[in-house]
Design a protein that fits this description.
Strand content: over 45%
Largest sheet: 8 strands, antiparallel
Order of helices and strands: EHEEEEHEEHE
Number of helices: 3
Length: 154
């Protein structure tokens, strides 16, 4: 796939606005796709996944044998530290928003909660995704990229 920037429409001066965690989570919940970042073989790994927000947690589904499953199974730990990113940035104007959540990911093992997660998150790949992971946000940051709106003020 080739990306063509020849039709880029610049929106003039831009401004970056920091969002509070409630605003950031609200935006994250408004899109179905994000990227989970975790460590695999001591290196950062990024996977695109779909998600929902459920009672303040990010919930994703995955399959048995996925790289993240083995790291999240330990019952005696709070989970594995991950980052989760979602955004909606217009490719032409470069305006939009981005949210990054850092927190602990744990495998959902309670049968009732697992059934609930399976009902909430519909897989977007043709693969058995019988497992679910909950990410409890500890640090939530977000930014809004917007047209400045000022009239030439310095």
């Amino acid at each position: 796939m080739v990306h063509d920037d020849s039709t880029r429409v610049l929106a003039g001066p831009r401004r970056r606005i920091e969002l509070d965690s409630a605003q950031a989570l609200r935006l994250l919940g408004s899109v179905p796709l994000g990227r989970i970042v975790f460590t695999r073989h001591a290196l950062p790994t990024v996977r695109p996944v779909n998600h929902v927000l459920d009672d303040g947690d990010i919930v994703i589904r995955t399959h048995e044998g996925a790289a993240l499953i083995s790291q999240t199974q330990s019952a005696d730990s709070p989970g594995v530290v991950v980052a989760y990113e979602a955004d909606a940035i217009d490719p032409l104007t470069h305006l939009g928003w981005s949210v990054v959540v850092t927190g602990y990911a744990r495998l959902v093992t309670d049968p009732d909660d697992l059934a609930r997660c399976r009902a909430l998150v519909r897989p977007w790949v043709e693969q058995a995704t019988d497992q679910a992971i909950r990410i409890r946000p500890d640090l939530v940051t977000g930014l809004l990229l917007t047209a400045d709106g000022r009239s030439g003020e310095a």
